[in-house]
Amino acid sequence: MSLDWLPREDGKKDHHLWGEEHFGKEPPCTMFELRPIRDPSGKPVAGLHSAWITLNNPAQFNSYTTEMVKGVIAGFQRASADNSVVAVVFTGAGDKAFCTGGNTKEYAEYYSKRPNEYGLYMDLFNAMIDAILGCKKPTICRVNGMRVAGGQEIGTACDLALSADTAIFGQAGPRHGSAPDGGATDFLPWYLGIEDAMWSCVSCEMWSAYKMKRLGFLSKVVRVLKKDGQFIRNPLVITDRWIEDGEIVYGEPVTGEAAKKAKESLAGTTTDFSLLDAAVEDVLWRFTNLFPGCLIKSIEGVRLKKKFFWDQAKVINRHWLAANMMGEALLGFNAFNTRKLTGKDVIDFVEYRRRIADGEPMTEALFEAVLPRPK
Q1: CATH number assigned to the domain with residue range 29-224+273-326, chosen from the 4 options 3.40.50.720, 3.40.462.20, 3.40.50.11270, 3.90.226.10
Q2: How many other C-beta atoms are found inside a 10 Å radius of the C-beta of residue 8?
Q3: Whole-angstrom distance, CA of residue 91 vs CA of residue 82
Q4: Residue 217 needs a FRET pair 20 to 30 A away by CA distance; which of 14, 248, 269, 370 works?
């Protein structure tokens, strides 16, 4: 007779689905950590925590492998089922990236030409977004660097985002063989105006944290660069609120001679996330001092709109993304994966379009003609 129904030694039921098997310390992995809630004086509050879920693959800009996706799912489920957790902080290791999406090396070397396998991977990806959207705790994306492609999508699934001013944001799908159907096409129209959402999805432009704050995409942007012991704003971005030729340029990259001087001014700077972490702690303390039931109901009321559109398309998008592994994704991911050998990270788009216009089938000959060649 099973005795699983009996409570643990502390008298509580165990509602976790997994143990430690999906978490790690050595990259590539997902890390899970409980940190104490701190009051405004910095003193730890006994018995209350924030759950930190960290993508730990800095050598590949925290791109998530299949195993890392499992870790994110497990992490959000664990945090959701732990009543000592006030909120979840989702971030990346290092100072270069929060996340740049799926691991392109894994995509190119394993999932290419294996659409059924990629479909199973997309089931895990969808479960990752569902785990974030379904977490019974507020979720904060701590953006410590690039938030691009799938990284942008898992970030926008979170409730709030606080960002370093060195971060950039954008999609990469149409340039590298995919579509931003892991949440961007569902979430961005809620964050941005419809044309800004459209352009972000299709242009593959990278936008600064300051521009995203101006567009209402981020809760807060803070300085992380230090020079001579003082925090300075990111010099690569225009941070004066002025208009040029009828266009708002606040948050746009500096150009020309100003860009050269900006890069020179970066010499001798260090990265310090203390202001970003202080901003996160402020939000955590605010959450701590709210009724937990009323808080999560309020959050779910806003999340509901995001979840509605995500749920409409996530399954059919899964099927298309899997099938695409036999075509444009195969080309795009392999071009990116061999960029160190070829010096290029994209195919010859003009030649590809010419051949498609001529009705040429998707054969090895076409692939050979449009993929970049080794130097």
Answers
A1: 3.90.226.10
A2: 8
A3: 19
A4: 269
